[in-house]
Amino acid sequence: MKKYIAAMDQGTTSSRTILFDRRGRMVSCGQAGFRQIYPQPGWVEHDPEDLFSSQMKSWEEALRLGGVRPEEIEAIGIANQRETAVVWDKFTGKPVYNAIVWQCRRTAAQCEQLQKTHGRQIYERTGLRTDAYFSASKIAWILDHVPFARTRAENGELLFGTVDTYLIWRLTGGRVHATDYTNASRTMLFNVHTLCWDDDLLRLFRVPRCMLPKVLPSGSDYGVTLPAFTGVSLPVCAAVGDQQGALFGHLCVRAGEAKNTYGTGCFLLMNTGSEAVESKNGLLTTLTASLTKPGYALEGSVFIGGAVVQWLRDEMKVISSAQESETLAFSVPDTGGVYFVPAFVGLGAPHWDSGCRGTICGITRGTGRAQIVRAALESIAYQVSDVVRCMERDVRLSIEKLSVDGGASANRFLMQFQADILGAEVCRPAVSETTALGAAYLAGLTSGFYRDLEQLKENAAGAECYRPEMSDALRAENLRGWESALGRALFSPEK
Ligand code: ADP
């Protein structure tokens, strides 16, 4: 009997392979970084060959560290950085250009223009704001700038894929050109209502349909790997975008269930079930992972989350490690009226002010570094709470629990304050690698390695939960202070 499921977690700065057992426990983890390529300010690229080779390096390491033979692995699930675009030659397999990474701003001006003329149409079809972030304009850029690329694409010689698609194509020796609904929903070319590539958008972005992968449920048959790569031939049974992978890893599979990832920025997703909710608050509508027809989620992000802690450490040098922020925040009863709005790069949902910048207000003679550090941690929770409130207004229900992961979710002060400000329970699962876990669950459910969701729920025992303890009056007072601080930071508070 096979003992493990392998999750390949292809992220923005590193590739990892994590092996999970039947109880959903992590057995081993291999990791390999790769080059970040910055050809010009604001441009970000990865070499697709690096993505593949680092992934295979992490594979070998995970098997070695776990003392696992490839024959003991049942199936592979892939989770990946979303939106990043790769275009390659169908016959030689050679990429015609580096992967253009989601962070890359090279097509920002064109997208701002399109937002004005076609923003509504694009939102209605894709659930997305027209932005350089998504794949469509990146593909168009490659076709416009690489000599002969457009003609070759139109002749059916070039293929496009997000990173999942590229890895699957490589692993299967070029036999499978496919992606899943969650990744397709981030390309800005996929109609999330009809669940098809959208011909009008393909025309608008001038992307030939013949380059596009077929789209499958996240848990599905994605072919088998070549033994040259994985030791023996193994089935690939899942592909999923990282954030939707995490949502599934948290088992947020019903409407109203939500997760937040506290990384450099914060990524919130709330499952809205079979309903594609139109946001009145600037949130995105996106597809969720499943073994059949996908459901929908609302997505919102906070640009500066854990990064505010990095800033305190690296730029201000008021703390020597991220962990120290927890001790300092706990060392004072409150911030003494200090509020920190870390709008270093503007503010996203629900404010959408790209021009505003950071502010610290309410400073008195008695303010010290503990108050500033505490205010910085509190700002992460306030921003997350603002996005959660938008989601609650959009779906007209209130969340009872927020599932959390990511580096800064290790901070107990932050988690308690988050529960207090939300007035909801905040739970961090025992397995912190929820993105990889989601890919493993999807692959394992597809292959039959895991029986059903009930079994996975039993596996999920051991979460650390924080219950709200703050009085309603204090919560209201704190939120008033935050609102007032926001008003000072925003470029045009009357908006
Ligand atoms: P990413 O995937 O975006 O690189 P991670 O999930 O690895 O992010 O989390 C890293 C971020 O979390 C950093 O911004 C760091 O400052 C923050 N962080 C890590 N540990 C803590 C902690 N104990 N308290 C607060 N922030 C933390």
Explain what the structure shows:
By secondary structure, the chain is of the alpha/beta class. Helix 9 (242-249) packs across helix 14. It is globular and about 70 Å long. 36% of the residues lie in helices and 20% in strands. The protein is built from 16 helices and 22 strands. It has helices spanning 48-66, 108-126, 135-145, 149-154, 163-171, 181-184, 199-204, 227-230, 242-249, 307-314, 322-330, 369-395, 412-422, 434-447, 453-459, 472-489; strands spanning 4-10, 14-20, 26-33, 45-46, 73-80, 86-89, 99-100, 158-161, 178-180, 190-191, 196-197, 214-216, 236-241, 258-262, 266-273, 284-287, 296-302, 339-341, 359-361, 401-405, 425-428, 464-466. A hairpin with a 5-residue loop joins strand 2 and strand 3 (26-33). Adenosine-5'-diphosphate (ADP) binds next to helix 10 and helix 11. Adenosine-5'-diphosphate binds at residues 263-264, 306-307, 309-310, 322-323, 325-326, 406-408, 410-411.
> What is the helical fraction, as a range of percent?
25-40%
Task: Estimate the mean pLDDT confidence.
Answer: 94
Low-confidence stretches: none
- Total strands: the figure is 22
Bound molecules: adenosine-5'-diphosphate
**Overall geometry:** globular
Radius of gyration: 22 Å
Q: Give the termini separation.
A: 61 Å
Record the strand order, biggest sheet: 16-17-15-14-20-21-22
Binding site for ADP: 12, 16, 264, 306, 407, 411
Catalytic activity: glycerol + ATP = sn-glycerol 3-phosphate + ADP + H(+)
GO molecular function: ATP binding; glycerol kinase activity
Domain Carbohydrate kinase FGGY C-terminal: 259-445
